């Protein structure tokens, strides 16, 4: 197993920073690794704290009279200079319950009211996102949305179109559009399951 010998903070930004890890490989050879993190300082890194607190939430919500449409956003993202389909998502504020964060983020991004579900243990604990480059982890919150979509509460920096997609539209999106990978995996469940959130039921 490799060993981290020192950590240096290379940037000082508000939302994302780069940390340089000096390490020793299992062979004994020394190396460096670079990690992007939302941690504001070295002590807050998951490497240092050993705690996996969620940096953000991803919201998997159904809407419509028959709860047969999934709530998506089509958002402009700078890293690809294009629009991509995602679930509504956002950062968890310090000390905030992630279900509360989900309600806030849904309202800000879509203008809709979110009613979170209680789910079996293990379904909404924080999981890591892109572990090869960041220690970021997110919790998934499941639930139902009501009301009409609106962009009124979006920030000026956000370019978001709210999409309520039925199974036919989801199949088209999976075939043709740019999609965040975690969203794509869950949309595959959406088109397959006969019952909304059927995959959440324990055997």
Key attributes of the depicted protein:
single chain; 203 residues; alpha+beta; 8-stranded mixed sheet; 3-stranded antiparallel sheet; 19% helix
- Rg (CA only): 19 Å
Summarize the amount of helix as a percent range: 10-25%
Number of strands: 11
Order of helices and strands: EEEHEEEEHEEEEHH
Total count of helical runs of at least 4 residues: 4
Beta content comes to 25-35%
Class derived from helix and strand content: alpha+beta
Which blocks of ≥5 consecutive residues have pLDDT under 50? Answer: none
Largest sheet: 8 strands, mixed
The span between the termini is 37 Å
Mean model confidence by pLDDT = 93
Shape descriptor:
globular
Write a structural description:
It is globular, with a radius of gyration of 19 Å. The protein is 19% helix and 34% strand. The mean pLDDT is 93. Strands 4, 5, 6, 7, 8, 9, 10 and 11 form an 8-stranded mixed beta sheet that branches. The chain contains 4 helices and 11 strands, in the order βββαββββαββββαα. It has helices at 46-49, 98-110, 167-176, 181-192, and strands at residues 3-9, 17-24, 30-37, 56-63, 69-77, 82-86, 89-91, 113-116, 127-128, 137-146, 160-165. The protein starts with a strand and ends in an 11-residue tail after the last helix. By secondary structure, it is α+β, with helices and mostly antiparallel strands.
């Amino acid at each position: 197993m490799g060993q981290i010998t020192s950590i240096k903070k290379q940037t000082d930004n508000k939302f994302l920073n780069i940390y340089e890890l000096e390490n020793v490989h299992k062979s004994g050879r020394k190396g460096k690794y670079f990690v992007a993190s939302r941690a504001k300082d070295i002590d807050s890194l998951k490497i240092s704290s050993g705690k996996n607190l969620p940096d953000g939430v991803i919201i998997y919500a159904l809407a419509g009279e028959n709860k047969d449409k999934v709530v998506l956003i089509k958002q402009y993202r700078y890293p690809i200079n294009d629009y991509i389909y995602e679930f509504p998502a956002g950062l968890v504020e310090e000390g905030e319950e992630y279900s509360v964060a989900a309600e806030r983020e849904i309202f800000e991004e879509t203008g809709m009211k979110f009613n979170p579900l209680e789910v079996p243990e293990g379904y909404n604990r924080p999981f890591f996102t892109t572990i090869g480059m960041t220690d970021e982890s997110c919790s998934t919150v499941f639930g139902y949305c009501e009301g009409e979509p609106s962009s009124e509460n979006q920030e000026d920096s956000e370019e978001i179109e709210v999409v309520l997609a039925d199974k036919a539209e989801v199949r088209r999106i999976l075939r043709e559009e740019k999609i965040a990978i975690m969203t794509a995996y869950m949309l595959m469940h959406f088109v397959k399951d006969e019952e909304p959130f059927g995959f959440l039921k324990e055997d």
